[in-house]
C-alpha cells in the first residue's frame, strides 16, 4: 500500500510540472496520456534488477556466546536461493529474506535477530533468531540447526509453522563429537553449580521441573540463554529519519493529502493566469519548484 501511494504522489508531482510547462509554452500543443495507476508488472521479466532495500532491525542482536571456535563465523554471511527467495544467514547477527521476483516491489525483510541458544541434552543444538518483521499478530523467527559439513554452507530453509523458519547450517567447526557440548565451555564456578545440581537431582532433593529451571539459570549466567522476562535491547537507529520519508502508510497518506491540495491550488493559479506569457516556473532535478519564481520571472 505505501509503495502504491508513493507512485500516486509522484504522478501528481509530474502532472503539476506538465501543467505549468503547458501554461508557459503557448506555441506548441503537448499531447500526453497520463496513467493514474502504477503499472502492475505481474510476472513479466525485465532486465533491470530491483533496487536494494535498506532493512532496519528493531532490537540489537545478543553478544556472541557459545563455543569459542564458532567465533570465526561472526561477521560472515551465507546465502541460499530456494523457492524464488534468497535467504541470508549471518551467524550471531541476523537472518534476512529477499524475494528474487523482478516485480516492481519484491519483498525484502528481516526474519530474525540473534538472541540465544537452544540447548538440548547438554548440547548447543540451534541458534535462535527472534524479533523479525511482523507477521500478522507475531514476529518472524528462525531456528538454525548446526550440523557437520565439509564447508560452511546454508543447506536448507523450511517454514514448518507460518512465519517460523527452520534452517540447517553445515560447517566443519562442529564435526568433532565434543564441539557443541555446553559443560566444557562453562566457567569453573558454573561447572561446580551444575555438579551440585546433578547431585541434588540424584538424591531426589529437587524435582525434574526444578532441576530444569535451575539449570536454565546456570545457562543464563553464562549468557547462552535469556531470562524469559528479559527483552533484547532496542536497536540503535544510526540512520536519520526525515518527515518526508514514506516509512508508514499514515505518513504516505498525510503527504498525499498535502500534495493533492497543493496541486489543486496550482491548477487554480494556472487557470487564472494561463493567458499571461510572463508566468513561468523553475523546476530542479528533484521535481521541486520555487513558488516565488512563478511570479518573479522576467
UniProtKB/TrEMBL annotation:
First and last residue of the signal peptide: 1-27
Domain DMAP1-binding: from-to ranges: 182-288
Biased amino acid composition, Acidic residues: 287-298
Pfam annotation, one family: PRKCSH_1
Record keywords: Disulfide bond, Signal
Organism superkingdom: Eukaryota
Domain MRH: 75-177
Annotated stretches, region: Disordered: 267-298
Gene Ontology cellular component list: Golgi apparatus
Designated name of the protein: Uncharacterized protein
Organism annotation: Strongylocentrotus purpuratus
Amino acid at each position: 500500500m505505501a509503495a502504491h501511494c508513493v507512485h500516486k504522489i509522484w504522478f501528481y508531482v509530474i502532472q503539476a510540472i506538465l501543467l505549468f510547462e503547458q501554461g508557459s509554452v503557448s506555441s506548441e500543443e503537448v499531447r500526453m496520456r497520463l496513467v493514474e495507476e502504477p503499472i502492475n508488472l505481474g510476472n513479466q521479466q525485465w532486465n533491470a534488477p530491483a533496487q536494494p532495500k535498506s532493512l532496519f532491525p528493531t532490537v540489537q542482536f545478543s553478544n556472541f556466546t557459545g563455543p569459542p571456535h564458532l567465533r570465526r563465523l561472526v561477521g560472515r554471511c551465507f546465502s541460499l536461493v530456494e523457492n524464488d527467495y534468497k535467504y541470508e544467514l549471518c551467524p550471531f547477527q541476523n537472518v534476512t529474506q529477499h524475494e528474487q521476483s523482478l516485480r516492481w516491489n519484491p519483498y525484502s525483510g528481516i526474519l530474525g535477530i540473534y538472541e540465544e541458544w537452544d540447548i538440548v541434552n547438554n548440547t548447543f543444538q540451534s541458534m535462535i533468531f527472534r524479533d523479525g518483521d511482523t507477521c500478522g499478530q507475531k514476529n518472524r523467527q528462525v531456528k538454525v540447526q548446526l550440523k557437520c559439513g565439509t564447508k560452511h554452507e546454508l543447506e536448507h530453509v523450511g517454514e514448518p509453522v507460518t512465519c517460523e523458519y527452520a534452517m540447517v547450517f553445515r560447517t566443519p567447526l562442529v564435526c568433532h563429537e565434543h564441539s557443541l557440548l555446553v559443560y566444557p565451555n562453562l566457567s569453573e564456578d558454573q561447572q561446580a553449580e551444575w555438579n551440585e545440581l546433578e547431585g541434588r537431582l540424584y538424591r531426589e532433593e529437587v524435582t525434574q521441573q526444578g532441576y530444569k529451571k535451575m539449570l536454565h539459570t546456570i545457562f543464563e549466567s553464562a549468557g547462552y540463554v535469556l531470562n524469559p522476562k528479559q527483552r533484547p535491547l532496542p536497536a540503535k537507529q544510526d540512520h536519520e529519519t526525515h518527515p518526508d520519508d514514506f516509512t508508514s502508510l499514515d505518513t504516505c497518506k498525510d503527504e498525499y493529502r498535502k500534495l493533492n491540495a497543493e496541486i489543486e491550488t496550482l491548477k487554480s493559479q494556472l487557470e487564472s493566469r494561463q493567458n499571461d506569457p510572463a508566468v513561468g516556473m523553475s523546476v530542479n532535478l528533484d521535481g521541486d519548484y520555487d513558488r516565488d519564481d512563478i511570479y518573479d520571472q522576467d
